[in-house]
Amino acid sequence: MTIETLSETNCFGGRIGFYRHASSTNNCDMRFSVFVPPQAQHGKVPVLTFLSGLTCTEENFMVKSGAQRVAAELGLMLVSPDTSPRGDDVPDDPDKDYDFGLGAGFYVNATETPWSANYQMYDYITTELQDLVFRHFPGDAARHGLTGHSMGGHGALVIGLRNPAMFRSLSAFAPICTTLHSPWGRKALTYYLGENQSNWKDYDAAEVARSVQDSGHYSKILVDQGATDPFLEEQLKPALLEAACEESGLPLELRIHDGYDHGYYFISTFIEDHLRFHARELRG
């Protein structure tokens, strides 16, 4: 599997790059970005993958979060994939809205036509991207953490909880905590998975948290949420995740921050906490 280098440059003693490859999973070209810390000159390093939110690409986290300075200090490799398939032949929201289709893959495997031909983001994150990252970059697959924001925070929770052997640490920023009870989630899963909501539960973070069997795998799941987030009550619903984790025994630390909203000022404020959390969890 080959990748095309779009750009690379030095950053805090390491290297940040943006890449493209032909995806057999999503049947289109996909892009992703990687920050390799300076410690990788001496051997494989732990990896943190960040899943971005609605309308984002592989660039948003790398450009806006300010994560590279601390990642370089800690020796963490950062990976950020695009949020959906792209291309002229990839179907988009019929209404041309921002919350479905291009930029809004929701990290699910679509089963409904025409979406199923391209929107296989769950498999992309858990299979194809894994192969690319650990074949072409000096990351240690045994020390891999997962995080994300909003739609990507939801994706991180679902993927991390469903794949505990793949990821050793898990966190999220302002995640959509339920698709069953979120207008964003209900719209997306109706298109991607069909009207039968029993098929949605594997892609609902609260439902997955409630049903998870190995509650002792993660020593802690860290979630940060802004108290003045305009999407908090209607779309995100962290109380549902908190209740589900209490029911199943998952060790959730949910932190609510006064005065913070949904954007990258919020993420950049608390990204260091998350990086240090993942570095501790991935040590050794």
Polypeptide structure, described:
The protein is an alpha/beta fold. It has one domain (4-281): Rossmann fold. 32% of the residues lie in helices and 23% in strands. It contains nine helices and nine strands. Strands 1-2-3-5-4-6-7-8-9 form a nine-stranded mixed β-sheet, with helices on both faces. α6 (205-211) runs parallel beside α8. The longest helix is centred in the last third of the chain and has 18 residues, at 264-281. The two termini are 29 Å apart. The model has no long low-confidence stretch (mean pLDDT 96).
Keyword list:
284 residues, alpha/beta, Rossmann fold, nine-stranded mixed beta sheet, 9 helices
Indicate the proportion of strand residues.
15-25%
Main sheet, how many strands, which sense, barrel?
9 strands, mixed
Mean pLDDT: 96
Q: What is the string of SSEs from the N terminus onward?
A: EEEEHHEHEHEHHEHHEH
**Strands, total number:** 9
Low-confidence stretches: none
Strands across the major sheet, in which order?
Answer: 1-2-3-5-4-6-7-8-9
Rg from alpha-carbon coordinates: 17 Å
Find the CATH topology: Rossmann fold
CATH architecture descriptor? 3-Layer(aba) Sandwich
Rough outline:
globular
The level of helicity is 25-40%
CATH class: Alpha Beta
**CATH homologous superfamily (4th level) name:** Alpha/Beta hydrolase fold, catalytic domain
The number of distinct structural domains comes to 1
